[in-house]
Design a protein that fits this description.
about 600 residues, alpha/beta, ABC transporter transmembrane region fold, Rossmann fold, 6-stranded mixed sheet, 4-stranded antiparallel sheet, 23 helices
Length: about 600
């Protein structure tokens, strides 16, 4: 069953809390029966119902449960009768009232303790689910996020996780607390009168069927609601990321209109979900009242007959117990709705958690700490999951310490080649070798530890200069960070800020210029001190003055390193040891600048166009 699947999946780390929760709810239910039992003698005293003179009976513990129960019941009423005779009815009523207060206090206290031990389960499940999701997202290949929208992923980590958490709690009540209460109450009702309980059993399936019909389509509607929430978050994320363009093109009204339409659609969907969900309580209450009315009629008819199996005070006690069943029964119906909603959210979460990691680690990895000889692309071909072929039979050797540049039109496969080297994607055909060993034979952590990346867009975090430069480098000293910043021409502008290296740079480095952001990312790569450097159009988005400063920093970074660089501005790679010209996924020309220019081919045309 679905709720059993939920419990098996999320609850095992909290067995202790679950055990204590069950124990205290069981105790609370038993205490509620004991406290309700005080009603019978109170009614008998108030209305003078029981006029029989009772005698004390010795309990035969070897007898049946029914006989033992009957004897204990007789002796209890004998004691009450004796106390009424000797101490007076008023004192007995006072004693019964105190008994009712004490047992009710114990009942509510144990009920609270049951809820008390539920809280760490609830918060723990929420934490575990978010941690699992975040960890999975961190380890998923980059290709996954080309298919998924960031807003939808955020929705799954927030609203979907919260919905599953609520579903887990509902399923716990459904599995433990409510069934325990219902079973104990029904057993007591059977002991009091099997005639009345059989009548109840005939009525409850009808009401249960009607309640079940209400929530039949709730799961589908909930799925759509969470998808629409993801679309809303995606629109917000896109708007925040592109606010400059929105304002520059006077597109505020267009985006507001689009957002309001989506917002209204989401509201209507959740209106339908919540109206259906809210129907559980009134419908179950109405059906419960209808069952009680029928029970009053049938029970009253039994009592008014000459051979009634139950007395009037016992019938009142029976009704109190039955009414106590209604609340857990209503919670069961609401829990079933909540589980349907939670399962819809769980399916969306599982789409991420069950996504295969396409970048597999080797069973017996080879060790690697440095580049000794060369990097080799050997008959490499690559196509994205959509089927679009990007690279065709690439062959390239990058000797240690040399700079190899990739140039060509947009979409020719240059950046894809850079992504294949650190295994952001795996090749479809061929292999990439480092010192003769296929890179798929190394642990991705060890492989990527050899490489430093500087991209066209400087990826920075809303943290200090120091923490951004030391990102991914442990135990770096301030002197080392300052030395890396000086090489990257970043030290002076960092020291000009109010708190120097401890100044926060804003969201994605929003408080810095483009050139400053790029120099921070270069300082980060310098501090890592990698033997292999990957530069992806690191200066193409900069103005001339910034480009000069960044290019100088890059020249400092590239000294004595093996460098693979992509550039649109051919002047920045004129001195590269090898230039590869790419077109439609093929290397069509390769050589030094002078050799390629002398060919008067594709590279020459590119150079002349830029000149």
């Amino acid at each position: 069953m679905n709720f059993l699947r939920l419990i098996k999946r999320f609850i095992p780390p909290y067995k202790k809390e679950v055990t204590l929760n069950i124990f205290f709810h069981l105790l609370s239910t038993l205490l509620s029966l004991v406290s309700f039992a005080a009603i019978i003698p109170i009614l008998q005293i108030l209305f003078g119902v029981n006029t029989d003179v009772l005698t004390y009976q010795t309990v035969d513990w070897n007898a049946s449960v029914g006989v033992i129960t009957s004897t204990l019941k007789n002796n209890l009423f004998y004691w009450i009768q004796q106390q009424t005779t000797t101490q007076g009815a008023g004192w007995v009523l006072f004693a019964l009232g105190v008994f009712l207060i004490v047992t009710t206090f114990l009942k509510t206290a144990t009920s609270y303790l049951g809820s008390y031990f539920m809280i760490p389960i609830r918060t723990g499940v929420l934490r575990d689910l978010r941690s699992s999701l975040y960890s999975k997202i961190i380890h998923l290949p980059i290709g996954f996020f080309t298919e998924e929208r960031k807003g939808d992923v955020m929705s799954r980590m927030t609203s979907d996780v919260a919905e599953v958490e609520a579903s887990i709690m509902a399923s716990l009540d459904m599995m433990f607390k409510n069934p325990i209460m219902i079973i104990i109450y029904l057993t007591t009702m059977l002991l009091l009168s099997w005639h009345l309980t059989l009548f109840v059993f005939l009525l409850l399936p009808v009401s249960g069927y009607l309640i079940g019909r209400i929530g039949k389509s709730l799961k589908t509607k909930s799925m759509r609601g969470q998808e629409q929430t993801g679309e809303l978050l995606n629109q917000i994320e896109e708007t925040l990321g592109g606010l400059r363009v929105v304002k520059a093109f006077n597109a505020e009204k267009k985006l507001i209109s689009r957002f309001q339409t989506q917002n209204d659609n989401t509201r209507h969907t959740f209106n339908r979900i919540n109206r259906r969900y809210a129907m559980a309580h009134p419908v179950s209450e109405f059906l419960g009242t209808a069952v009680i009315a029928a029970l009053l009629w049938y029970g009253g008819a039994l009592i008014l007959s000459n051979n009634s199996p139950i007395t009037a005070p016992e019938f009142i006690y029976y009704l109190v117990i039955f009414y106590s069943i209604i609340n857990p029964a209503k919670e069961l119906s609401k829990a079933s709705y909540s589980i349907r909603k939670g399962l819809a959210s769980l399916e969306r979460i599982d789409k991420i958690l069950n996504t295969d990691l396409t970048i597999h680690e080797p069973a017996a990895p080879s060790a690697i700490t440095d580049l000794q000889k060369e990097i080799t692309f050997k008959h490499v071909s690559f196509a994205y999951p959509s089927g679009r072929q990007v690279l065709h039979d690439i062959n390239l050797v990058i000797p240690k310490g040399k700079t190899v540049a990739l140039v060509g039109q947009s979409g020719s496969g240059k950046t894809t080649m850079l992504d294949l080297l650190p295994r952001f994607y795996d090749v479809c055909e061929g292999e990439i070798l480092i010192d003769g060993v296929n890179i798929q034979g190394f642990l991705t952590h060890d492989l990527r530890a050899l490489m430093g990346n500087v991209n066209q867009e400087a990826i920075l975090f809303n943290d200090s200069f120091y923490n951004n430069i030391t990102f991914g480098v442990e135990h770096a000293t301030m002197e080392q960070v300052q030395a890396a910043a000086r090489i990257a021409n970043a030290h002076d502008f960092i020291m000009a800020t109010p708190d120097g290296y401890h100044t926060t740079i804003g969201d994605r480095g929003s408080r810095l210029s483009g050139g400053q952001r790029q120099r921070i990312s270069i300082a980060r790569a310098i501090l890592k001190n990698p033997p292999i450097l990957i530069l992806d159009e690191a200066t193409s988005a900069l103005d001339t003055a910034s480009e000069k400063q960044v290019q100088e920093a890059l020249d400092n970074l590239m000294k004595n390193r093996t460098t693979l660089v992509v550039a649109h501005r051919l002047s920045t790679i004129k001195n590269a040891d090898l230039i590869c010209v790419m077109q439609d996924g093929h290397i069509v020309e390769q050589g030094t600048h002078d050799e390629l220019y002398a060919l008067n081919g594709y590279y020459t045309k590119l150079w002349q166009m830029q000149k």
